[in-house]
Write a structure and sequence with these properties.
alpha+beta, six-stranded antiparallel β-sheet, 26% strand
Length: 300
């Protein structure tokens, strides 16, 4: 119950603290608003400086919405009437990630075994070399990517008292394995235990190569589970994705709860987290001691 209340409180705080957004209609009219919800067919918002009433506009009347950090959602008639396509390549992932979080660096993934010609797809169950999970992110035309664990847990990033929490060096936004190594070094240098980093330990205990994902890795996995877009969710694709998890005796992704990443914030008391739905903000930070959902990742 404590974890659930923390999650709900954090979500409420994040939404209430959101800055004003610029909504531009097709007729050129501009409105300063606070966007509450975006679906394929409509956008819900309140006017600048007020919480009520809640207005709704069809996406067919909206040109674009620009957010305080400069990123924007652009709408068109085709997008509002055509289902979002299933993600087919890493290009889809890179474009979506870059739209929300800036330039994406090149990725160098190491295959688990001798490279084969097999091409994987998002939502496929991967089961090779003792590694089993769902394909969550793809690179190199589908030959490489990230596998996400079938199960999940609700754990703290760290249980160290806040007065003793210091920067661990786990600040990589793109490579969770790099953060895992930073935590390993921090534990060794400070005579600590993996037990004091429960989320990391849970992933590590799955075996060699498993790690707690970086903020952009877990965010990308959530985006691809919805069909490749945070603005136009392909609900059929998401249902099939979760059905694939359930068929493999796994746990469906929650679109209500927050998921920990391995990336710590600039303030050493906090770590970054994200969620698996389209509500903004897409990433935020919370106390490392907060118990949030955790999924382990593995490169292939």
């Amino acid at each position: 119950m404590r974890s659930f209340l923390i999650i709900v409180a954090a979500l409420a705080f994040s939404i209430s603290a959101a800055a004003q957004d610029l909504l531009v209609k097709r007729n050129g009219e501009q409105m300063r608003v606070k966007v509450l919800k975006i679906t394929k067919k409509k956008v819900q918002f309140t006017r600048q400086g007020s919480e009520f009433p809640v207005y709704t506009l069809p996406t067919s009347e909206i040109d674009y919405i620009e957010y305080p950090m400069g990123d924007r959602d652009t709408f068109n008639k085709e997008a509002s009437s055509t289902p979002a396509p299933a993600p087919s390549s890493e290009a889809t992932q890179s474009r979506e990630l870059e739209k929300w979080h800036g330039a994406v660096p090149s990725t160098n993934l190491v295959p688990l075994s001798v490279q084969t010609a097999k091409k994987y797809t998002i939502g496929e169950i991967y089961d090779q070399d003792g590694v089993k999970g769902i394909v969550a992110v793809l690179y190199d035309g589908g030959e490489h990517g990230l596998v996400m664990s079938l199960d999940e847990a609700c754990l703290a990033w760290s249980t160290l008292p806040r007065k003793k929490v210091k920067k661990t060096g786990a600040n990589d936004r793109y490579d969770g394995m790099a953060n895992m190594k930073a935590i390993e070094k921090y534990i060794a240098d400070n005579n600590l235990s993996w037990n004091q980093f429960p989320a990391f330990k849970w992933c590590r205990d799955k075996g060699e190569g498993w790690f707690l994902p970086s903020i952009n890795e877990v965010w990308s996995a959530g985006t691809m589970s919805m069909g490749g877009s945070r603005a136009a969710i392909n609900r059929k694709f998401r249902r099939n994705y979760n059905h694939s998890l359930e068929s493999a005796k796994g746990v469906p992704l929650s679109n209500l709860m927050f998921y920990h990443s391995s990336t710590e914030d600039n303030d050493p008391k906090y770590a970054l987290y994200t969620h698996m739905n389209s509500e903004s903000p897409n990433t935020d930070s919370g106390y490392k001691a907060d118990e949030l959902f955790v999924r382990a990742f593995h490169k292939f």
